[in-house]
Amino acid sequence: MTKKFLKKIIAQNQDDLRIISALCTGALVNKSEIKFLKQNKVFLIPLERKNKEIDNSNEKIFSILKFEFIEQSKSKNINLEKKELFLELIAIDTFKKKENFEIVILFLNNTAITLTSEVIEVTLEDMTEIND
């Protein structure tokens, strides 16, 4: 009998975030589902990604990327007027800028979201149960 469970990965530094970035490469994001809860300093990105934890798997997993302690959010080349816009995530990278981190979420077609935070606190949590 195989056990089903939800996976959760927490990143608190740049190296940890590279792992989450690798797992999310190629994931599809519906722009209308991205949320910035400014008062809570939380930025949420629901996404559909391939299960890269299992070799040669085409299984789709619904996950949520949660960025915490976010002070500011900026987007580049994202059409805010278009309701149903799907973005393909390429990578997540970080840069140290004075006392803050800039977390850059890169998408296909030169689109990006840049988040500003004092610390790196990112969680990738699966919403789909996985057999492992």
Based on the model shown, name its key terms.
132 residues; mainly beta; 5-stranded antiparallel β-sheet
Task: Draw up the topology in text.
Elements lengths: L3 E2 L2 E4 L2 H11 L3 E3 L4 E3 L4 E9 L9 E9 L1 E7 L9 E12 L2 E8 L3 E7 L4 E5 L3 E2 L1
Task: Summarize the model shown.
With 132 residues, this protein is mainly beta. Helix content is 8%, strand content 54%.
How much helicity do the residues have? under 10%
Report how far apart the termini are.
Answer: 11 Å
- Domain count, please report it: 1
Based on secondary structure, the structural category is mainly beta
Give the radius of gyration. 15 Å
Mean of pLDDT? 87
Protein described:
It contains 1 helix and 12 strands. 8% of the residues lie in helices and 54% in strands. 21% of the residues are buried. The strands form 3 sheets. Strands 2-11-6-5-4 form a 5-stranded antiparallel β-sheet, with helices on one face. The chain is mainly β and 132 residues long.
